[in-house]
Amino acid sequence: MATDRKVQANNRRGTPWLAAELNLLGKRPDSVLARRWGRTIGEVVQMRESLRIAMKTGPRRWTRREILLLGKLNDFEVARRLRRRNDDVRQQRLALKIAPFKPAPKSRPWQPWEIRLLGTMRDEELATKLGRTVWAVKLSRAREHIPVFDSHCRRWTPAEDALLGTMRDEDVAERTGRPLSGIVQRRTQKAIRLAVRQHPWWTPEEDRLLGTRPDAEIAAHLGRPILSVRGRRQSLKLPAFGKKPFQPWTQEEEKLLGTMTDKHLARKIHRAVGAVRLHRWSLHIRVFDPKRHVWTPADEQLLGLRPDDQVALLLGTTVKAVRHRRRSLHRPPCPQQLRKRPSQWTREEDEVVRTEGIDEAVRLLKRTRIAVSTRRRLLGVRSIVRHAWTPEQDRLFGELNDKEIAQQLGRTQSSVENRRTRLKIPVPKPGWRFFTAAEDALLGTAPDVEIAKRLGRHPSSVQARRLRLGLRKGNPRKRRPWTPEEDAILGTSSDTEIAARLNRHVATVCIRRQKLGIGNFYWQQRCGRQRQLEAKPQSSNTQPASSGPLMT
């Protein structure tokens, strides 16, 4: 009795949750908390998931079968097979002191005199001089925090940073010799605001010009950017030049929606096709379909008086549409249509359904396929008819493969495979073969396509086998070196034109130009245009400003 009273006292199922209980969710196992508070585990789990509190679970333990795989394959393959992280597999192998599947090549430590050479010449030249790879030189230089030798990226000086915000970005770009985009990016990164306005204030005379001519002409006349002119016009809610004001929809126009295609209606009422479509959607009007029948009161009177097929033929629509309309009006079919319904199933017909297939039963009983399939389901007849295997058919398993047996006997391939498994007969003509030791030795010595042709295999099979063994791809693609004539062309036009002329990739041309420290042809042209635009307002300031509209 005392135990029952104690259990009833600790039972808190369905009671409100306390703040102390909510603080422990996720910090202890759900079963422990449920036993301590007298609640069910499902109740604890539901409250924890509703609060989006994750349950911390410990790492999955390593089994003996998983440990035996360590060192027999590379760590990436073991991680993929065991569904573990690559770092977990590597740490477990190192903890058990198991050698890797393919030991890493011996690395030569960096000497102090080699480190002193970093940054004194280009990485490619230093790699050739020291007998190391370019990536090893770059990695060591990055670890020592040594900048690139003769980099085309000029670092910002404190004097240049002091100019940001004190004048217009165009003036800073002209004084420092940097592109305008670099000035804007540096000032935005430093969160420096402009102390001087980028563009002058708008005057009433300039506001009166907005909308009287295209934005491009007004921008050229006032010496302002096109986006600035467009933004000012939109802020004043002025329509663009040549744009018609909004015309409200009339009742006559709305009555035409859905009676013809949107394209024809837009042409008829002189509106855009998108405007017609959006207004039709807003009124929940269906799109015009010439095949859809529009029901009239006279058409609905025919429903239920004649069979559905006769009404469909008379109105020029489908039987399905007539049946759907009649059922929506809750009208029963006519007596003539009721007499055409199929009669009850007889015992002779049920016997045909049980013994014959679906196609044969449809032909003999002259019923629909759906009716025969439904009757078979009601009678409990299986759709799959199993045929017994004969000794003559079993002898074919030792002579042909599964696909050939299935085609010859008219059976499914899965049925043939199951029969072969039961008989325990190996496949005499398998479609694949194992890699031999001689074939494995060829992997990585040449491209996969050449090895596949030599071994008579598919290139994807050779590639999968090479990746499984952890071998690198052989015979990498050789790059075409740059000639002095090609270097002399860089910067004379855009990178796209030079790439098409030299038959190289645009990214390759851009990287080569940046390595040689050659300026971008596009930014040079843009800076030239900016200087011309800046010279135009200065020349226009000397002339008296006109307050009237533009003169053509």
Can you give a write-up of this model?
- This protein is mainly α and 552 residues long.
- Among the domains are: 2-50, no CATH class; 342-385; 391-468, no CATH class; 484-541, no CATH class.
- It has 36 helices and no strands.
- It is extended, with a radius of gyration of 42 Å.
Structural descriptors:
552 residues, mainly alpha, 36 helices, extended
Average pLDDT? 83
Indicate the overall shape. extended
Number of helices: 36
Count every beta strand, where a strand is a DSSP E run of 2 or more residues: 0
What profile does the largest beta sheet have?
none
Beta-strand residue percentage? under 5%
- Secondary structure class reads mainly alpha
Rg:
42 Å
Could you give the distance between the termini?
107 Å
Give start-end ranges of low-pLDDT stretches. 1-9, 539-552
User: How much helicity do the residues have?
Assistant: 40-55%
